[in-house]
Each structure stands twice: as structure tokens, then as C-alpha cells.
Design a protein that fits this description.
With 986 residues, the chain is an alpha+beta fold. It folds into five domains: 25-223 and 484-652, TIM Barrel, CATH 3.20.20.80; 298-435, Sandwich (Jelly Rolls), CATH 2.60.120.260; 658-709, no CATH class; 724-882; 901-984, Macroglobulin (MG2) domain (Immunoglobulin-like), CATH 2.60.40.1930. The longest helix has 30 residues, at 465-494. Residues 1-15 have low confidence and may be disordered.
Length: 986
Amino acid sequence: MKKCFFFLLFVTTGSAQNFSNGFNFNLAWNDSTSQKFLPQFPIIPIPQNSFVTVDVDGNFNLSSKKIKFWGVNSVADGAFPDKNIAGAIAGRMRKVGINLVRFHHIDNGWGGYSLLKGVDTRSLYSANLDLLEYYISKLKENGIFINMNLNVSRRFTVFDGVIDADSIFNYGTEFAKGITLFDPYLIMLQKEYAQQLLTHVNPYTGKALVNDPVMAMVETNNENSLYRFWMSNQLKPITSGGKLIYRHVRMLDSLFNKFIADKYKTTANLQSAWNQGTVQAGKNDQIKNGGFEQVSSFNSDWELELHSPAAGTTSQDVSNPYAGNLSAKVSITNSTGTDWHIQFKQKTLTVYKDSAYTITFAARADAPKQISVSMMNDYSPWNWYGGIVINLTTSWKVFSFNIKALKTNIGHTRLTFNPGKYTGAFWFDNVSVTSAGVSGLNKDESIELQNIRRIDYTDCVSYSDQRVKDISEFYIKLQRDYFVDMINYLHNTLGVKVPIVGTNWTVGAADNASISGSDYIDNHAYWDHPQFPNNPWSQTDWLINNQPMVKDSYGGTMPDLFAGVPMVGKPYTISEYNHAFPNRYQSEALLFLTGYSSFHGADGIMMFDYSGDRKNWNSDWVNGYFDIHRNSIYMSLFPSCAFTFRNSLIDKSKNMIKINYTPEALYLFPKSVVNDWHAATGYDHHLALRNAVRTESYTSSNQTNFNSLPSIPTNPYKTDTDQITYNTSEGILTVASDKFNGAAGFLSSLKNTRVGDFVVIDFSTSDFGSMTWISLTNEKLSQSKKSLITLASKLQNSGMIWNSYNNSLNNNWGRNPTSIYPLNIKLDLNIYADSIKIYPLDSKGIENIIPAFIVKPSTKNHFMVELDQNNYKTLWFGVEKYGVGDPTSVENENGIPTEFKLEQNYPNPFNPGTVISYQLAASGHVSLKIYDILGREVATLVDEIKHPGVYHSTFSTLHSALTTGVYFYILKTNNYLSTKKMMILK
């Protein structure tokens, strides 16, 4: 359902997260009114007999016109609202710009509302089907399409005829669903469900979904990839650390042996192919005191890293060693529940780029426990080379895994055992790190005996190229065959007329190849997804990092979301995205998604989620990580961002990079990409922060030479359209197109920086916020008669209590009502007008409820506007212009002044502060100083090199000894000199 990213946890003081001076801005769940200063989304009837298709340019098309989707997810209970409120929900969705709803987890088996409610899961629950179909009819009445998901979280039972169903790992998790891609009986059950759902006639529309244009797209499987499960070493028995019961292990083994037998016919042929390039394993063990027999050097060779309040000790134990006389014992007396809070490590190892290593050790524990083991840098940037998760018992077991180093690290690589999730005792022995050999066909394996083993992904570096190619091809082909079969069944047997996708959240080019036969491509991403140290989806035991994506040095979710996942000639959608609550930087999410999705030519966006709760629609509080319909930060930004995306107000990339793969290159990825999902395409994903990057073919005869790709962009990242700039050092994202401007991050860093047609003159605090400004007419912002500014910061529930140790609320989510942190921002708006009027809007978008105010130009076409949410308790400000201003006088078409000018300060007279504006037509040294009436210098405002543009300097007497009187300010630059008079009143 959701994509997790691993980040190191930054601990902060919990009490500091809350604010006390917030204001309430509750956007009503059932408000469908149309307002003058909000983007208009009128009902556009869905055609009766025209279906969404894919056009020759690879975009969604309806009735011969391109269509883009701004959507949300209705999840589990939230997909079955009561009939008396379904229409109101749909109307509010339409008002804020939603034209697509993705139905997700409607097959759930965890209780609550679902289509599968019986003892078995082979028939649809009619009462809930009725609620769902009524909801769909109301969406259709509002011109909102649907995306129907099929296999998401269904839990098959023994009453379905599924053998050993009670022993199968939780179907609702991504690592268990892989069996539904190859178990024939489970595939039959999926087709049966699809037939029941898609061909049932909706009594409220008179059409089955297969014949109803309200269905815009279909998804066969949510987040289901055999390749990803293999990459995570999960396609093996539960007793060996995997997720498969024995029956499914044997089923996969049988399928693999048949694949090998069909390809090679005889063991001799197989041996000839697999044994080419084999090398004996190396003997160069780097581990010091790996048997723990040397007492004197134990504490210098091995270190126990503790993160308070985690506590523990190490010792050498004489009782029951695996070999020799001693083993290492780690005794944990206090656990935080997070594995890496206690690390038993040796940190002086060396790895060389592109070299493979084998890590071997014996381990046991005082009770069955699961720990992780890894090889990584012992210093920032903490590069991770590989690792495994192992299940320990009270008996000694030998474990082994392989890594391939992507970078050289001499003397500062560490082997780390991470037992910090538990209290108790752990023992380790016979630890070694050697250079890896290369094996082919093992001596005991043969086609005739049907015992050819499926090797783990992390073991591929120690096997021959051909053996790796074959196991890769097997998994890719197996899941591709499933998707092709399912898509053909939906189209040709059931009569589905709209585009279908196989799955989403794939891990690189080899995995993407298996879904490349889909009608469109889909992906998921989350920033600061909650982490669950002990129990998955615990309601109380969770934490977040609470960090802003604008300051992430990698680029957050954007590089991996777009680099090469979209395909040439196919629509691209993002059906799940969120910056999860209670992250304090949520307001950045929509500008990131709107900006980069538009730039990369995405065809659909679906925020996750709208609501997973069918009852509490009118409660003014946020009680989950992902529900956004009551989160005013998200919902206030929806109208401007939805209108921008759906109407393509941000330009697509000018220079698309097209990537081609040969099958052989894909099959060999496991030997070059070992547990590094960022590297699973072969090139640096940061290219996607400058160019569109799409895959053209996975079956090309000519592999793209990745060394010939354009240079990797560096921070600050700017798109090739020059409309999006992402500065991770300053923590700022800006988007500047003709009809839409936006900024997100630490807005004080934008001071005196032009973003399209606005400049941030001052930002009252160093706090975080997001601002969008959109034209409400078909004109540029500088000429638009009506426009909307949205200003959003952060939101909290009343009485929310942060954990003082980590970033979590545990179960202290608070209550009604929500409050929003007020921002105070001063802007220079570039509008061709004689005056403008600012309308602070109420939570329905209505003007004249809050007093409006008139603003006169401070200079020609420049209006100094202060939006103080302490006074105007709103997130929306309507802007209306009067007159035509002077569209020819001060700036050329690029917004660069054509003359030098010093303006009269405003206000004047003043106390305690004023703003001095000036414009530069050329680069040069700028001096702006203030003098008293006797010619004595009293302040220097500017003394530096500046480039052409309009600038604003603030001057305050708040902490100075200046008295009432007349003063002068002088601007000197190039050959220009100008003096103005101003007056201080105290």
C-alpha cells in the first residue's frame, strides 16, 4: 500500500513541535460552492459511450482530447460512505479540482468495510457493493472518474479452497502477495473477483463498469513484484528468513527447474554455460579476531555502539561456542525497539569499487529473534554496501551473504550486527569477510534430479554471469507472463475498454521490464513514511523523521519517482503520494508533485489518501498519517495545484533523455546492483531533476551507453525549462511559469529573489511555508484581472502530545479543532495595474466576509503586499487588479529592468520601519546608504555586487538611536547615482 524509505532518525525535543498561536481554517467536507477567487471546476458530464484511451502521443485521451487526472484514493472504509453523504463528498471533491478517485483496499480482510465479508472470499458482499456503486454514481454525476484496483489486500482462506491458507504470510503485505503472481489457483480466484466486480450492473448508473466510461483505468495488482521480493531475499522459506510456505517454495522451485530444462535440455549443456568464468573463493579474511579467541584485543577489535537509552555490554563467553573456546556475547539490558540503536561492529575493513565480498558468521540467541546485518561506511554519507535480515534460534546457525562495493573505502568500512530491537543475549562466532569467488553449477545439481537451486539476489555477485542471467530472466518472465495473461483476460474476456496497468512501486529497470506490456505505467512514493520499529502498522509504536524534503541532499522522492520509470509512448501516473502527517513540513508536498509531474509529462496524480474513515467526515482533526480531506494544509493547496496540473500551466521538459536496454544487460543487473535500489537503472537518477528521462525499450538491440548521457546536474537543480529550481542547501523549491508561481520551504531564504512575478521582500520568521499564486483568467499573472494566492504552513490538532524522545505522537493525536501556524510575508507583486485589491477569503472562498484592502503601486507595476495571517486568519487571498498600469515602461519580456531607478521609500514618513526599492539594469557593485541632515552616514543597507532586477531593502529604527527628522538615502551603481529624502517620526 505504501512505500517506505529508510532514513537515519533525527531525534528532537517533542514539546518544541507544537505552537500556541495558531488559527482555525476548517474547509468544510461538504462544500461544493463556486467562488469568484477560486479556480473553477464545473461539472463536465462524462460521455455516455466514449472511454478513456491512449493516444498516439502516449497520453490519456477522451473524445479526441487529452485528459489529465488530479485524483485521490478512497481507501477501505472510506470507499463505502453512507448514501446520505456520498453526493456531498463527491461535490466537495469536484470543487477542489479532483476528477479521479482510486478505489483501494476494498478487498481488505482485516475487518470493517470490504467487498469480501463472508466466511470465504469468493463472493461479493451485496450491502457494501451497493454502497460502493451508489458512491460511484455520485462521483459520475460530478464528472469524476474512477481507477479500480483489483488485488490489493485480499486474504484468501481455507474456505476458498486455498491449501495451507492459515499458514501463508499476511497477504496484505507487499512481501507475501508475490504468490498471487504464480500460484494458478490464486490467479483463478483473482480473475473470478474481477469478473464479479467489473461485470456487475450498477443499479444507479444502469451500467457495469466494463461498459461505463466512468472507469478511466484498472490496476491488476497493487505493489506486487516478484523481482522486488527476490531483491529483498524473501522468495525462500519462512524458516530461512523468507516469506514463503514450503508449498510455494516447491512450486517456485518446480517452475524454475522446468524453465532451466526447457532452455538447456541436459545437465552437460547447463554445466558448460554456467561454469564459464568461475573463480575459487578468496582466502583474504579481513576480520580481526573473528573467532573471538584473543582476549587482549577483543575490546579494541570489536565495538558496541549504543544510542541512549539503549544499553548493553559485550563479553567473551566460554559456554557453548560454535568453534574453539570462546564466542562473543552481546547482552542487551534496555532496548528502544530500533535495531540500529545497538550495533556490534568492526569498523576497520576495506572494500574496493566493483569488488565482491563474502561475509560469513555463526550466530544464536537466547530466544527466537530477528536481526539485521550489514556492511557500510563508518562515517557520513554512510554508504550501504549490502546486508541481510536473519532469524536466530537458540541453536547455532551459519549465515552467509555477499556484497559488491559501489565505492572504494579504505580502512573505514564496518561490518555491523544490529540486535537493538530486543533485550536478552546474542552470541556470534567464526566471523569472516573474504573476497568472493565465482561459482557456476554446483556439483550436486542436475536437470535430471530437478534440484537446480534458486540463488538469492545478494548471492548473485558470487555466481557466474550466465547463472545470474538465467535466474533474473526466470523471475522477470514469470511475472511478465502473469501481467500479460491478466491484462488479456480483462480486455478480451471481460471486455474492459480502458487502459490497464500491471502493478506499481517497482525497483529499477529489470523489474520495470516485466510490466512494460501494460497500457500505462504507474508508480508510488512517500516522504517520511511512518516507521514501525516492532509491530507493523501499530497504532501506538511508530515514529517519523520529521525532516523537510527541500533540504534532502539526494533530492527526496523526485529522482527515483521519475528517472526512467515512465516509458516513451505510454501514459504515466503516480497513484500514491504523500508527505505523511504529522510531519511539520507537509506543505511542500503538493508543489513538488505538481511541479515535477508537470515537467515530466505525467498524466495522473492521486494523493494517498482522501479518507479511510467512512463516519467522521465532519470532524475537524487529522487522526491518521495519510487522510487529507480534513487537513487544511493539503486541501487549501488543491484548487491551485489541481488547476495548474490539469491545464498544463507548467511546461514539459524540452530535452527528453531516452533510455534503451538489452535483455542481457537487464539480466546482469544483480551483479552490479546489490541492494541499491537507487542504482537499479544503471545511471544517476539526478538527471530527472533537469531533464525528462523515459525508457524507450527493454528489448533493444542497442544498449544505451550511460557514460554518454548528459552531465549530472548539481545543486541547486534547475529544470531545462528554467521554470523549476530546487535548492537543497537553502531548503527552497520554486516554480515560475506565466500563469502559476510557487515557492515552498524556508521562505526567508528567498528574500529579494524573484520567482516569476513575485519577490519575497521579507518573511517574519525563519519558519517553513508554501505559497502558490495562480492566474484565474487566461492571462499571465502580471496581466490577470483575477488571481489567487495560497499561503500554507503547518497544522496540528488541539492537545496533540509529541513523544519527548522520538518524533511520534504515539496514541496522543489530540482532538478537535485543528489549528494552523500563522505566517507573515511581505511580497512585491509584479502586476500591470493602477491599483490592486486584496480579498482575504473565508474557508469557502467567499470574499467580503473578511475586510479587503486596496494597494497602490510602490513603483510602476510593483505592489508591496503584506499578508499577515495573524491578522487575516485565512490561507486564501484573492487578488483583483484595476487599470492597465504601464506594461512597457520598466521591464523587458524577461522581467529585467531596462533602466536604473531609485524609488521613494514606503511608507514615508515612517516608524519604525520602511522599504526602499530600486531597480538595476546591469550587474555591478551597489551601494545604498543612509545619511542624516549633516551628511553623516548612519546606516549601510547594501554594499555588494548585484545582478539586474528589482530589489527591496528594509530599514528599521527599532533598535537605533535615530531621532525624529529628515534623512537622505543614496544609491550608487555603475555610473548611476540617485538621492531621495525620507522622514522618521518618533
